[in-house]
Each structure stands twice: as C-alpha cells, then as structure tokens.
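Q: Could you fold this chain for me?
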Amino acid sequence: MSAQTSTIRVDLAGRGYDIAIGPGLIDRVGELSRPLLAAPRVIIVSDEAVAPLEGALKEAPGQPDLLVALGQAYYKTGRFTDARSRLEEAARRDPAGPAGRRAMELIKNFPK
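A: Sure. Below is the predicted structure, expressed as structure tokens.
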C-alpha cells in the first residue's frame, strides 16, 4: 500500500480481517481484492461499491466471489433482480464451494 494508505488488523478469535484506509482505494478494488479471492468471503464496503465490482468482474469474468460481492452490492442498492441473477450465477459456477454456498444462503433470505 502507499504512504497515504494504512491497514488496520481487526482480530476476532480466528475471524480477523484487515481494513484498508486511504484515498483512491476504490479505484484499485480489483487489484487489492485479487489476493483475497481464495478466501471464503470477501466483502467490500463503499458508498460506490457497484461500479468497481462490475469493473473487477470484467477483469475476472465469472469469478464466484466477485459475483457474490456484486450480488450483495446490488441487493443493498435495491437492484433485487440483478442481485438474484449474480448470486444464482455464483451458485452455478461454484456449487460445492464457499462462494456458491454463500450465494445460496443469501438467495434463501431474499424477500418473497
């Protein structure tokens, strides 16, 4: 990370995570999240999360973890049809893996 960027580690009894803080990080979301994609879950929180996730998905088409993250971002912005579509795609691409299982869990909780 750059001199203007800092990382804070949050330790939670085996469920810890890092928080990156600094200017321009959202423009580098694909680059920064790539090493994390092997992890069971990746969550990117941003006021403008959808566009960077769509961009990252263009760089790594069909990547299940990105599909789940984009589905969650769509859901939070009220784009429920898009959210379901991305989550269903993640479930199809990774049916037995962590991203696919997470996608199916999220779909179960969609409003009827």
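A (continued): The first helix runs from residue 29 to 33.
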